[in-house]
From TrEMBL:
<dbReference type="Pfam" id="PF00005">
    <property type="entry name" value="ABC_tran"/>
</dbReference>
<dbReference type="GO" id="GO:0016887">
    <property type="term" value="F:ATP hydrolysis activity"/>
</dbReference>
<dbReference type="GO" id="GO:0005524">
    <property type="term" value="F:ATP binding"/>
</dbReference>
<protein>
    <submittedName>
        <fullName>ABC transporter ATP-binding protein</fullName>
    </submittedName>
</protein>
<keyword id="KW-0067">ATP-binding</keyword>
<keyword id="KW-0813">Transport</keyword>
<dbReference type="InterPro" id="IPR050763">
    <property type="entry name" value="ABC_transporter_ATP-binding"/>
</dbReference>
<dbReference type="InterPro" id="IPR027417">
    <property type="entry name" value="P-loop_NTPase"/>
</dbReference>
<dbReference type="InterPro" id="IPR003439">
    <property type="entry name" value="ABC_transporter-like_ATP-bd"/>
</dbReference>
<feature type="domain" description="ABC transporter">
    <location>
        <begin position="5"/>
        <end position="227"/>
    </location>
</feature>
<dbReference type="InterPro" id="IPR003593">
    <property type="entry name" value="AAA+_ATPase"/>
</dbReference>
<keyword id="KW-0547">Nucleotide-binding</keyword>
<comment type="similarity">
    <text>Belongs to the ABC transporter superfamily.</text>
</comment>
<dbReference type="InterPro" id="IPR017871">
    <property type="entry name" value="ABC_transporter-like_CS"/>
</dbReference>
Amino acid sequence: MDEVLVADGLTKSYGDVEALSGVSLSVAEGEVFGLIGPNGAGKTTLIRALTGTTTPDGGSASVLGSPPVDVDRQRLGLLPQDFRPAGRLTAHELVSYYAGLYDGARDPDDVLAEVGLADTGDTWYENLSGGQQRRACIALTLVNDPDVLFLDEPTTGIDPAGRRALWTLIDDLADRGTTVFLTSHSMEEVERLADRVGLLNEGQLVTVGRPDQLVAEYGGESRLVVRTAGDADLESVSLPASLTGDVTDDGLTVYGVGPRQISDAVDALDEAGVVYESLVWKQPGLEEVYLSLTGEQFEGARPAAAAAVGGEP
Ligand SMILES: Nc1ncnc2c1ncn2[C@@H]1O[C@H](COP(=O)(O)OP(=O)(O)OP(=O)(O)O)[C@@H](O)[C@H]1O
């Protein structure tokens, strides 16, 4: 497959802050690439370097085979994180205005319908709700039917139904061959949309891979998180040999619990007379990958120094 986006050793500093410290990656045509990372990791700076809206200090980037500044703007769509178009234009006027900047732009009504604003086209932008405003901004990136679409936190502020509708839209765009490069703090969104994910931390690309590969490599074990009621004697729980457990502040976390071992773990709790308030079975996902690679903890993560609960001899 053709490489549509290439970053090769990109560096960018702002004073003492190294926003990008040698980032290299490539994205193929029709791929949805999800970039995740903590606040200040350099995600927006990378998008800006790839779209030619900032000049990197070192390294190089190419988009559709050309340096970013030379790419035909007709072929690019960019939704910046803090994009604020004119407030006293209606959604329809805004989309029409942006459509007028391109040759052969799409019909504004079609674009508004695609982002779920067919009935709100006559409302001033400033009177749209936050989520509707974000949808209108997404509409503006679609008027020129771009080959490459950069979306910096596209669904922030959009309600769950609207987010799902936009996920379907992004899927459809990718199916039609649009290359999508998006950032998000929603691991659910990235896991759902991205063919591959890159984790950026302190300006460095820590890992790149398919979501399932990253989860298998870094996500840790499936676990059963038990919240106990009262003073349960958790030390006396005798787990099956295949499972291990750690006592936590409010109960017990049992590790290595696949779907078929849930009942074994529950039986062990019952045999020890443990009264529990809740049992939550958790499979690792991208959130666990993110948190483990950025050095943070997550709910139910194995604590470093917890009392261990023994397995059966
Ligand atoms: N124009 C600028 N001038 C000075 N510092 C900047 C500028 N742009 C970015 N930075 C700094 O570079 C670092 C990376 O910022 P960037 O916006 O790329 O992070 P991000 O990963 O997009 O963060 P967030 O998730 O909060 O949007 C931050 O420390 C930020 O303060």
